[in-house]
Write a structure and sequence with these properties.
11 helices, Isopropylmalate Dehydrogenase, globular, alpha/beta, two-stranded antiparallel sheet, ten-stranded mixed β-sheet, binds magnesium ion, binds adenosine-5'-triphosphate
Length: about 350
């Protein structure tokens, strides 16, 4: 069998990042040898502690190593200082820019016991990550009636097209996985979200470009629809089971992702990936959680699912499926749950249980 070695950068960052990223490494090392996959790891620094030690939050060495040596990476979390700190800015935001990781991908999936909804939730939000209001071009000026502040919302054809294409690819991959595991009942769909009834130029361009980019996926069995973002919020909270893939410009995607995470219980369950051409960084959605740091009670599942998600983008769907299945089985049985899930298991016990199932 063909064998492949993947080199993975490990960036634990701050707080519980230092507890969950080692769990991510263990899960990769535990994948069955029959997959023909091996991993090599490189430890890399970034975060607020790194900033306090060295004056830099994202060392150049970290960026260079990722660019030159790595196939993918895992990022834990970084603390944001409670008061603005001169010279400090978020290293993950900088990394997304430096590596052109233009998509933020957030799957939201319920397992029995983790949601109040009767029907299973299994959707993914694909958020554009480089433009929209987040270009941070703001200004404030004085007028006779007091101050006025303005921000630029920039939408481009290029960014809209590539994010929609990624959403189409993800929809196809999810369908492949459902077909190969005999899951029926859901078919590949991409919902484009926007507010083009009000913002006819910016969101209008996003909408029409996404439609165009998704057209050829339709011949491969992906249905495409669209929804105004406010009505999407309403339906997402009433019938989340109806969604498959949602593609959104930066701001709506940001808001929808956090909202959707709330549908399935703990922050400790929700993974994400920052994805560009041929590179992916898995990152749990939670922060550094200083309140539980060092207590061995953080939920490692968001990280373990982020590991699987990274593997999907490195075209290792089989390996990813093994991890997802073991995590779901742990949650369904409910014997080894961390305190945020109402259980009493330590981080390490949750990890051991999942490793046993693999
Ligand atoms: P940051 O500034 O790094 O975002 P934060 O104080 O906002 O830190 P978060 O990590 O965003 O903390 O978490 C919010 C709450 O959710 C905290 O009370 C934290 O304990 C809890 N939490 C977050 N992640 C986990 C996890 N993996 N397991 C258990 N509880 C978690
Ligand atoms: Mg936080």
């Amino acid at each position: 069998m063909a064998s492949r070695t993947l080199r993975i950068g490990l960036i634990p960052g701050d707080g519980i990042g230092r507890e969950v990223i080692p769990a991510g490494r263990r899960i990769l090392e535990a994948l069955p040898k029959s997959l023909g996959l091996t991993f090599s790891f490189v430890d890399l620094e970034a975060g607020f502690e790194t900033f306090q030690k060295t004056g830099v939050a994202l060392p150049e060495k970290t960026v260079d190593t990722l660019k030159q040596e790595c196939d993918g990476a895992l990022f834990g979390a970084v603390s944001s200082p409670s008061t603005p700190t001169k010279g400090y800015s978020s290293p993950i935001v900088a990394l997304r820019k430096r590596l052109d990781l233009y998509a933020n991908v957030r799957p939201v999936k319920s397992v029995k016991n983790t949601t109040m909804f009767p029907d299973p939730i299994d959707l993914v939000i694909v958020r554009e990550n480089t433009e929209d209001l987040y270009v941070k071009e703001e200004k404030t000026y004085d007028t006779e009636n007091g101050k006025v502040a303005e921000a630029i919302k920039r939408i481009s054809e290029r960014a809209s097209s590539r994010i929609a294409t990624m959403a189409g690819d993800i929809a196809l991959r999810r369908q492949r996985v459902r077909d190969s595991t005999g899951q029926t009942g859901k078919s590949a769909n991409v919902t484009i979200t926007h507010k083009s009834n009000v913002l006819s130029q910016t969101d209008g361009l996003f909408r029409s470009t996404a439609r165009e980019a998704l057209a050829h996926f339709q011949s491969q069995g992906v249905t495409v629809d669209e929804q105004i973002v406010d009505s999407m919020v309403y339906k997402l909270f009433r019938q989340p089971e109806t969604y498959d893939v949602i593609v959104a410009p930066n701001l709506y995607g940001d808001i929808l992702s956090d909202g959707a995470a709330a549908l399935v219980g703990s922050l400790g369950l929700v993974p994400s990936a920052n994805v560009g051409e041929g590179f992916a960084i898995g990152e749990p959605c939670h922060g550094s959680a200083p309140d539980i740091q060092g207590m061995n009670i953080s939920n490692p599942i968001a990280t373990l699912r982020s590991v699987a998600l990274m593997l999907e983008f490195l075209n290792e769907e089989k390996a990813a499926a093994i991890i997802y299945k073991a995590v779901d089985a742990n949650l369904e049985e409910g014997k080894f749950l961390s305190p945020d899930m109402g259980g009493q298991a330590k981080t390490t016990e949750v990890v051991e249980d999942i490793l046993r199932r693999m």
